[in-house]
Amino acid sequence: MLKKIFALMLAVMMFAALAVGCKPSNPQGGSSSKPTSEIVSDVSSEPEAESSEMTESDLGDEVGDNSSYWPYPWTIETDSAYFRDDPQATQSVTSGGGVKVYKNPGDLGLMCFSLSMSSTTAYGNDAASRERYFKEVVNEGYFNQYILFTGDNLLKEAKIIAEAGGSFWLNATKSGDTVDNGLDKYLQTLETAVKSLKDAGYGALLNGFFWDEPLLGNKISNEQYLTLTKAMYQKFGLRNFAVFATGEFTRLEGNEDELDPSIMIGKITTHGMQYLTDVGFDAYSVDVREGAPNGGDSQLAIWQKEISPGVVDGKSYYTEHRRLITERAGHPVNYWHFPCAWDDGLYGGLNGIKTADEGYWNAHLDFMAQDVLDYKYPGGLCIYTFRRVDEDTRVCFERRMDLKNEMGGWAVWSDVEKYTEYCKKLRSWCETFSSKRVELTNLTSK
User: Fold this and answer.
1) Phi/psi at 390 (nearest 5 deg)?
2) Order of strands, edge to edge, in the sheet holding 334-337?
3) Is the alpha carbon torsion for 121, 124, 128, 132 positive or negative?
4) What is the pLDDT of residue 136?
5) Contact residues for 200 (Cβ-Cβ < 8 A; gap 6+)
6) In whole angstroms, what is the distance from residue 227 CA to residue 274 CA?
7) How confident is the model at residue 256 (pLDDT cuts 50, 70, 90)?
8) CB within 8 A of 361, min separation 6: which ones?
9) Measured at the alpha carbon of residue 345, what is the angle toward residues 344 and 348, in degrees to the nearest 5?
10) Band of pLDDT at residue 263, cut at 50, 70 and 90
């Protein structure tokens, strides 16, 4: 009798273990620069993770027909991608070793510049407070993609994003000196980070690498940039995404009068963009609404001479820049707009406003979201910005967001007016973008 009871208990325990091991997770959270380059640096980068000693067998081969490094080749079959309207997009699978492997939802991106645990300090500077605040913002459904740094916070951030059904990029902005004197070491640092993400089950959520205004102030030359992006593309087979200041590809930088006179803005060339898959530009001071003066005829004449004769109003200021940077690439690229989400000074806003307000933010967001959706190869939106640390008094998205605490009050900056209509629009656009299939360009011929 005891043997029968013992056998029955053992069978029940084995069945329970099997059921737990096969049950998919249910992530929480639901649905989901700089006035051109007024301030070059917004949020200081986190310290890079120290490279650990790794053998060739640990890292695998470079991307190619016999690659053992990355789970898929760069030529992506978009028909097999997962999207948020597919239940599989927000569920994980469990491998035999018990590691959850999250699938990339493959949606159009909507993210916020400078939003990572390096900037989520409103609850405190300690790691636990940063992590709690970051998780609360992610779970609000404002965004579905994020720009992260290599370092101690990476896996914590990746887990939070994965459970919310999102994906992310790694910030790869570097100077030319890194290319000339430390490229192998830098690739090793990135490889260590990528391997840690892959081993933890988050590898498929890494879209690629992001650069912020790489040539501004001659931080890197076209040849150095080509060398860097080529090496990274060949090693990882992931997307390379750069946002450029307008002065990096036109004769006019939007806030040239405020830049240090010693800064010489480098110009990106088609040659230097060979290994870019995603591009955008940043300019925030032009009102896209009908009737906005934007500096009047005199300013319009300057834009038509120095940028393009096609600039005839606020909307065409942005669409002409889009045309110029995508044509400069010399091959199909996924395109990103950068809507204004801070108290930027304006050339001349509607109804005489001189500083970007909620109506201005709303107009930027709506116009640029639709323009991205209408583009043949859309990439997404990256609003600028979560926070600016160059001037603590600047009011950016962090202070305007409608995040609430458990008591129902505003979680941060309770004395600052919240842009509730804007936040509602942001969530709505995020849902729209998260439901759209992204057609990725590829560089298989390069």
Assistant:
1) -70, -30
2) 109-112, 378-383, 334-337, 278-282, 239-245, 206-212, 167-171, 145-148
3) negative
4) 98
5) 99, 155, 158, 159
6) 10
7) confident
8) 339, 340, 341, 400, 419, 422
9) 125
10) confident
Token reading at 65: 């027909």
Query: What is the spatial distance between Cα 251 and Cα 247, in angstroms, rounded to a whole number?
Result: 6
Q: Within the chain, how many helices (H) and strands (E) appear? A: 11, 10
Amino acid at 274: Q
Residue with tokens 């640092």: 189
Q: Which two tokens stand for residue 159?
A: 């887990």
Structure tokens at 168: 């992310």
Q: What is the mean pLDDT of the chain?
A: 83
Q: Give the Cβ contact number of residue 257 at 10 Å.
A: 6
Task: End-to-end CA distance of the chain: give it in Å, rounded.
Answer: 72
The per-residue pLDDT for 337 is: 98
Q: Which residues 6+ apart lie within 8 Å of 377 measured at CB?
A: 332, 333, 334, 335, 439, 440, 441
Question: Per-residue pLDDT tens for 122-156?
Answer: 999 999 999 999 999 999 999 999 999 999 999 99
% of the chain surpassing 70 pLDDT: 77
* Owner of token pair 């407070």: 129
CA angle 65, 190, 133 (to 5 degrees): 125
